[in-house]
Amino acid sequence: MSGDALYERLKAYEGRPAAVAGRGKDPVNLPMIRHWCEAMGDAHPAYAGPDAVAPPTMLQAWTMGGLSGHEDRSEAYGELLGLLDGAGYTSVVATDCEQEYLRPLRPGDEITFDAVVESVSPRKTTRLGTGHFVTTRMDVRAGGELAGTHRFRILKYAPAARPPEPPERPDRQDRHHRQDRQDRQDRQERPERPRRPRPVVNRDNAGFWEGVAAHRLLIQRCTACGTLRLPWLPGCNDCGAARWDTVEAGGEGTVHSYVVMHHPPFPAFDPPYAVGLIELAEGVRMISNVVGVPYDEVRIGMPVRLEFLRVDEELVLPVFRAGDGPGAVAEGER
Amino acid sequence: MRTGDALPPLEIPVTRTLIVAGAVASRDYQDVHHDAEAARAKGSPDIFMNILTTNGLVGRYVTGHFGPRSVLRKVAIRLGAPNHPGDTMTLTGTVTGVTEGPDGTRTFLVRITGANGLGHHVTGTVAVEVPR
Known about the structure:
The structure holds two protein chains of two kinds.
Chain A: H1 3-11, E1 17-23, H2 30-40, H3 75-86, E2 91-101, E3 111-120, E4 124-125, E5 129-142, E6 145-159, H4 177-186, H5 206-213, E7 218-222, E8 228-229, E9 244-248, E10 252-261, E11 273-280, E12 285-291, E13 303-312, E14 315-322
Parallel strand pairs in A: 12-14
Antiparallel strand pairs in A: 1-3, 2-6, 3-5, 4-5, 5-6, 7-8, 7-9, 10-11, 10-13, 11-12, 13-14
Chain B: E1 6-14, H1 16-25, H2 36-41, H3 51-66, E2 71-79, E3 87-100, E4 106-116, E5 119-130
Antiparallel strand pairs in B: 1-3, 2-5, 3-4, 4-5
């Protein structure tokens, strides 16, 4: 079934009941209230003693199926979840909860509830994986009287693949990885940070990366028309000629534009950090990190100077330093 | 408290025990809230706090500040970065509105944020009533 066809079928469940004449498995009671307050560390005096009321935020807890499950779920809701499971969206995570409390719940109150499927979202991709958001709205009654409303949104999703474990260092290759990790825990060390992604080097840009390794930022120059180009390309965008030579960048530049990365976090990067589009004095632009100033102080037009960051034993990257900070970047500095 | 006033922050150490105790107290037996292996199989690096516990902690934070007579009227939360064991969640709040009823009961609207090492675990709005 195509994604769109699935979505049409999911959408048909909007407005249909999610739970009909549901019944709380236990009446509101002091032990469950006390266990809740213990877990939450909540010492509100209204939730203890002879006249105790339940913490209002327990509203949903009284409707939970627990280990024995939800026999109150409607056939329609079961079908909806079944459709999502069948499409591979087998995992579930709650994302939103909106509750209004109309009257306090007291020990002895018998809980009943009805719920309706309010909406099903189109397919969305999140950090956890791809899936659909399902929103339900529940009326919770005590002794037949409306005590609260509960709108709840879940994501039914197919888990994204976990990023692969970082490659082991050569001196560790003879050791079992699990043991290695255990050793690190025993030594109370932080696990090694995943390594920064490697550049894709091919015959069209190999000269650029050889230059970087030698701490030279090389700009391609068309030998027919003299136009400079960066990043490296097989031909001139201006005149189409294939022949080229290089000029070395002097290292001066300005921030032409920038973004600050907050989310999502990628392994080996530590957000928030600034990513700059740097205009070199020679007139070409390139993207790299702006270092030497806090991420929130990077500004358009800010003068920067090229330097080379040794990321690890095999990777050097050109980065741009703002301000009058020290010229050399220590290994591991970000 | 007036509009614009900030509540003092509350730091909550996110322990494995808190996550599991909160899940059980809320009768939530989804394996991702107590079984690390099952959580990893579902794409998460470890177990994570369930939404009912977050809801309970947000309620505790607000009534803890507004005192023994305060009553929650509304709690609306959205989850972002998960609360994994070993992290710390810092709850902060700002009063965004105050209304007073004819009997002098005041209702405060509080915008809350719970930040952990990954970002914002929870953002939301709480309405809490304080009788005269």
